[in-house]
Each structure stands twice: as C-alpha cells, then as structure tokens.
What does this fold into?
Amino acid sequence: MDLLDISNACVKCGKCIQVCTIYDINRDETTSPRGFLDLLGAYKNGDLNLDKSAKQIFESCFLCTNCVEACPKNLRVDTAIESVRVDISEKYGISWYKKIAFWFLSHRKILDIAAKMGYIFQSCAFKIQNEKFTNSMKARFSLPIIKKERLLPTASKKSFLNSHPEFIDNGGDKTIGLFIGCMGNYAYTNIGESILKICKTLKINVHLMKKQACCGAAMYFTGDIKRVKSLAKFNIEYFEKLNLEAIIIPEATCSAMIRVDYEHVFSDEKSWQERAIELKDKIFLATEFFDKFTNLSEILANKNRTDISITYHDPCHARKMQGIYKEPRNLLNKNFKIIEMKNPNKCCGFGGVTMQTNRYNLSRKAGLEKTGMIKKTNANFVSAECSACRMQLNNVLNIDKCDIRCVNPVELIAEALQ
It folds into this structure.
C-alpha cells in the first residue's frame, strides 16, 4: 500500500487521535495521525509542496505506532511518515551532525576507536554522575544538540563485543546468535554481560556475531534510506552465512528494525524483501526467546523472591510492533514484585534522533508525562527492553528529581539467578 492508498483508506474515525503521543502534547490536529494522512495525501496528489513547514510537521511524529494499534484498519501511518522523510532528506539534506553520527555507526572498527577516545576524554565535556544514576553524565555546557540538563549514558572503557571471544561454549547442544545493538555494545554493556550469564545458566552456546553492523534504525527514522539499505543488506547476508537457529536481541528498536522494518525498507527490491522476510522467523527479542523456548522461567521460580519492586514500561517497538509484553513480565514476576503503572503502553517520548535533537522540547514533555505514572507506583526500578527508552526515561526521571532508574529486564533476571 503506497502513501496515497493509506491516506485514502483513512475513514477519519478519530480513534487514533485519542492515543497519539504528539497530539497529546500540542492538541493540534495538523500533527495527529489523520492530520498527517490528509497532508500526505495532498502531497502525493501534488496539492501540497514539501516546504519547511510541511517538513516540520512530518518530523514531529514520534513513530510510536499507537495510531496503528488503535486504527480499525491497522493503517501503517508510521511507514507513511518514514516514506515521506526519505523525500525530505533528499530535498533538504541531512544535518551535518547526523551525517557524522551515521557515518561512525556504519563503520564499526572506526567507531571502536572513537568510543575508546570518548571514554578517555568524556570527562572533559561532561560531568560523570556516580550517585543515583550511575554510568551517566551531563554536559558541562549547552550546545544546540545537547542541553546542559540532559542525562546521557557514559561510554564504556571497552565495548562488549571486544571484551569476549566470538564463540562462547557453555557446553550446550544449542547455539544462538546475539545481536547486541550499538547502545548495548558501547554504553549499556551490562546488558550483554547479563545475557551471557543467563545463557551460561541455561547451557546455551552464544555466537557474538562480531561482524554485525548497526541495524540502521536511526538512519531509517531520519530518511537516510541509502545507508539503511547498505547496512540491512550486509546484515542479511551475514546472518544467512552464519545459519544460526535463532538470533536474540535485547533491544526492542533493533529487533523491530530487523524483524519488521527491513521488509518495508526493501519494498522496491523484491529479492531482498523476500530474504528479509525469510530471516525474520529467526529473530527474537531476548525475553521472548528465554520465556518461550527455554526453561528459564522454571529456574527462576526456584530462586528466592526479593523485596525489590518493578514497574514495567512497554517499548513501542516491543509491544505494538512485535506483540511482546507478557514475556518480560512472566520472567520478572518469578523473583520481583511487579507494580503496573497507569498506562505502561504509553510512549516514553524518545522518538528517534530528530526528536532528540531538533524537537527535544517535545520529547521532554512526553517523557515527563511518563514519569508521573512511574513515580506513583513507588517502585524501586522501571524496566524496559530498549536502550533508547532507557536513556529517555533516565533523563526525564532525573529532570523530575525522581530516584527511580531504568534498567533492562535481562539485567534484573541475571541478578536473580545469582
């Protein structure tokens, strides 16, 4: 279904508006799902120029897919927005700082060197936080793309992939691949360490797939389709050669990109689309795989329960795009008390690179709405299987002067096993 078909299929029922993240913030129907679709239809019909005003409107969508979930016809508003962002990037180009970031993300070996340098010199430009939010830092001065109040993850001394051999033999009959994701590789490295602890307990061998490339999500949401296709083709070919039974990913955004969006990326290249579709059956979110295909739940049930309470945030790319939300709760509930917040399915407001840089004020507002729900639970931790959500939630929780911090569920599960 192309842009015009999606726009014409909308019956204007308004169910999407009630759940729209950006509309909830600014109450302007121009920036609402049916507003987006009307404008997209006008653009495709030649009645609307893709000027800077239209650019700003189409870049205000969080791509949270709330509207897709609520739509009676399941219209892929997110795919339509992602498509027009390709046209925007071709007409207006991509910001210099995004180009630099995307180039580094596309060159793993050079990024390894940059990450090491970043670890050494990060204290020059940032204040390292060692109290409530460990492994975090704040800028010493405000820049156009980094506000002084922002809480960001620190770079690790050594990347996760460079800290281990490629194949880890746990004496098992089964071997799985681990796609760690860029944030897990360079910042939140304990996620990968926790996966290895869990797999050691389960006696599952782990192939770290050290040649894995960035999934391309950041570029995809920005409209840099050429770079996305290059990364996607590399990953598809690499995964095919490895021929593993399963590839687990402890990051909702990376998992959804490979499992769902690669198919959309190659809508104009049928042979690659078919290969992407064939690959998707081997891709699993980490908690999904551990809950459905291992006896981890039984092992955890034999461990002691703790007094630690957790509230769970459902990443948009986990629940709405992949239908994964019961699995992490099933595992966490064995050892922790889960206190549900009012709306765990509400978008945290991360929204991608453009939202975090050009529209940070919108991201901040959406995030602070989420912190209100989290604080009311009085939980010890909020958990989310997504490092983008983690970065966003820890930032807004810190702004809101709340002691609760966000961690990945696999980290909590690994702690319970010990």
